[in-house]
Amino acid sequence: MGYSMFAPTGVTHWDKDRAFSGFVLFATLSGDLVRLIDLAGETVKTWSLPDGIKPFYPQFLDNGNLLVQGVTGKETWSFGGAAGALLELDWDGNLVWRYEHPTLHHDTCRLRNGNTMVINWEVLDPGVTGRVQGGRAGSEMAPGIIDADFCWVPDLVGRQGGQQRAAGTIISDALSEIAPDGSTVWEWHGGNHLDPSLEVICPLEGRQEWTHCNGVEELPDGNLLLSFRQTSTILIVERPSGEVVWRWGPGQLSHQHDPSRLENGNYLIFDNGEHRFNGCYSRVVEMNPTSGEIVWEYSGEPKLAFFSTGISGAQRLSNGNTAICEGRTGRLFEVTHDGAIVWEYVNPHEFPHRGDRRNRAIFRAHRYTADSAALRGRV
Fold this sequence. Notes:
The structure is a single chain. By secondary structure, the protein is mostly beta strands. It has one domain: Neuraminidase. The chain contains two helices and 28 strands. It has helices spanning 126-129, 190-193; strands spanning 10-14, 23-26, 34-38, 43-47, 54-60, 66-71, 85-89, 95-100, 104-110, 116-123, 144-146, 152-154, 163-165, 171-178, 184-189, 213-218, 224-228, 233-237, 244-248, 257-261, 267-271, 283-287, 294-299, 313-316, 322-326, 331-335, 341-346, 366-368. The strands form seven sheets. It has a five-stranded antiparallel sheet with strand order 1-27-26-25-24, with no helix packed on it. Strand 20 (257-261) and strand 21 (267-271) form a beta hairpin. It is globular, with a radius of gyration of 20 Å.
């Protein structure tokens, strides 16, 4: 689908009577700053990260600090979402806490106990690999080794050192609960708890990755809500057992992102729609986890007017509107319950990213009110 090279950027629409008030936090992929803007599109504050780390996904914590997942350039795998650093900064940009691991990717959440849940990639056990279904036949990872720096290196010369991996390797997801001192106090491994007969890879996707977890959220009971892009599944992992106690999505979702629990107990999901069987378009859905029914949906008019093949997210605002991040295009907008767009912003900050010289993509954006913990008395 074509688009204008000279389309307007910044705030393109603002219905002040119906739009929710507040501020927007985001970072352009491969950019150099975390940005906080107001609804007029004006920059309120920016943060930069140390040691050349590129911000991937920023969010404010309940303590008022900023938690940023960032790209170090030393990540193990180059799949989309690789971001091997977590940095907690205060309002003035001072470093409060830091954790790095080259297998980190996509999302993180600060738990109520003060620990931090992270998503890791890991090589799937060969005993499980042979049971993984779906995907394009023969598209597993090439032979290689993981060297001393955790980097995946093609095994072209049969060199020694590192952990040898044969052809047919598949990468899986794991979770780690990290204490403030950097120690791991709980782990979960997809290969130990997921059923390959249920978690089936989309037939149009490669088999390098099994599940591609792109979201994690702590629920009120301490369990974890996860999103798996490759299998178009959201599920709940019970803690501490690690068992899957609820799942939904195949046949309903298509490569979704960012599920979140609403105050009414329903789940809000950005359903990207890449490889959707009846046409590729994105939508945001609210679903009832008890009945499995979709109770609210937003899509574009025409449907291709709203489409992001990857990344992206949605947030239910306290006035009932929904803030949406159409990630690939860098378009942030707000819709009412009946689907009217009442605010729209197109990211004007471009940075080269994965071959795209005019990249404006945003992994996820969040709205915050002036009386939130991070902004109270500061804006």
